[in-house]
Design a protein that fits this description.
single chain, 4 helices, 3 domains, mainly alpha
């Protein structure tokens, strides 16, 4: 079992590195195909703090303002939709937490 786990870990690392190398090659290819340097092309997320302490942010060329974020947050709070997968995730997290807490208490009682 340990041998299998080690092999799978090596394979996962190998494929992950391959994905990263492939993404880098794709980026280089896109830049070569474009034919000129443009910094906005290589940075899909732009984040800069101004001297007055305010933060400027842009995502895929669209400016993101604090007003937009507040408006979206209010809209999400108003809808109050029920997310099935979120509730399953929360229940699973609580279950795992309870199991590990009881396991740690049991181990500490043995010591």
């Amino acid at each position: 079992m340990v041998k299998f786990t080690l092999k799978m870990f090596v394979w996962i690392c190998f494929f992950f590195i391959g994905i990263l190398v492939g993404m880098q090659q794709a980026n280089k290819g896109m830049l070569e195909m474009k034919g000129y340097e443009d910094e906005t092309f290589t940075t899909p997320v732009y984040w800069q703090e101004r001297e007055d302490g305010k933060v400027e942010a842009a995502f895929l060329g669209n400016e993101v303002t604090q007003f937009d974020l507040e408006e979206k947050r209010k809209k999400l709070e108003e809808t109050e939709t029920y997310n099935f997968f979120s509730s399953i995730g929360k229940a699973f997290a609580e279950m795992v937490t309870a199991i590990f807490q009881s396991l740690i208490q049991w181990i500490s009682s043995l010591i």
